[in-house]
Amino acid sequence: EADIYQTPRYLVIGTGKKITLECSQTMGHDKMYWYQQDPGMELHLIHYSYGVNSTEKGDLSSESTVSRIRTEHFPLTLESARPSHTSQYLCASSEKFIPGVTDTQYFGPGTRLTVL
Amino acid sequence: AQTVTQSQPEMSVQEAETVTLSCTYDTSESDYYLFWYKQPPSRQMILVIRQEAYKQQNATENRFSVNFQKAAKSFSLKISDSQLGDAAMYFCAYRRLRAGGTSYGKLTFGQGTILTVHP
């Protein structure tokens, strides 16, 4: 398994709370991603980063924000959690793109978030 | 926009038998990558196999192989000698070779197929 970690694994929290989901990788990967996945459904990209100080929004609109101050760390923050944010959040990373080499994404174990 | 379709929400197979999971995709690109990922219940998503579109030879990884039909835009996964540990949700994914001037590696996922393995 890849060296990419997410904490917490499970989080149950009340509406209106601020939360930060942590994601770290020890592989030195430049690119990192956040996906949102409802149970039994496909993954949707919500944020990605090319490298330090680079962040972009993904395909699925999300009220969350991300930061990339260090290569290995890509936290996701919800300023005010709502029940509609209940989902699983998966972090992934991949190497810098090299032509002719497939930059496979490696996934973390995920954080299952429940907002009451 | 690219789309990935997995038409089988659920599949089942007997242990030691062979099963094939279907995946079709839609794209106007000629160069891209295709992946199969496995997500066991409550466990980490891991890469099973990948295929570069420019390669005509089908990828193989031990008991896992693909049938890549570029003209038909089909990318099925065959699992031979199925094992109990193969039970998981399987996702087919597509990635363009490039995205604008910088390839950020965006993956487009299918809806997933839940595979059950019966002893």
Task: Provide structural commentary.
The complex is a heterodimer of chains A (116) and B (119). With 116 residues, chain A is mainly beta. Chain A is 0% helix and 47% strand. Chain A contains no helices and eleven strands. In chain A, strands 2, 4, 5, 6, 9, 10 and 11 form a seven-stranded mixed beta sheet that branches. Chain A is globular. Chain B has 119 residues and is mainly β. Chain B contains no helices and twelve strands. In chain B, a hairpin with a 2-residue loop joins strand 7 (60-61) and strand 8. Chain B is globular and about 40 Å long. The chains are: A mainly beta (116), B mainly beta (119). The interface between A and B is medium-sized, with 27 and 23 residues.
Give me a quick take on this structure:
The complex is a heterodimer of chains A (116) and B (119). Chain A is 0% helix and 47% strand.
What best-fitting shape of chain A do the alpha-carbon axes yield?
A: globular
Mind summarizing the main beta sheet of chain B? Answer: 6 strands, mixed
Overall spatial form of chain B:
globular
Largest interface: A-B, 27 and 23 residues
Put simply, the count of helices of chain B is: 0
Extended strand count of chain A: 11
Rg on CA atoms of chain B, Å: 14 Å
Q: What's the order of the H and E elements of chain A?
A: EEEEEEEEEEE
Helix content of chain B: under 10%
How far apart the termini of chain B lie comes to 41 Å
What is the residue-mean pLDDT of chain B, rounded to a whole number? 90
Over the alpha carbons, how many angstroms does the gyration radius of chain A reach?
A: 14 Å
User: What is the assembly state of the chains in this entry?
Assistant: heterodimer
| Average pLDDT for all residues of chain A | 90
Helix share, percent of chain A:
under 10%
Characterize the largest beta sheet of chain A: strand count, sense, and whether it forms a barrel: 7 strands, mixed
Strand residue content of chain B? over 45%
For the terminal residues of chain A, how far apart are their CA atoms? Answer: 33 Å
Question: Would you count the extended β strands of chain B for me?
Answer: 12
Low-confidence stretches of chain A: none
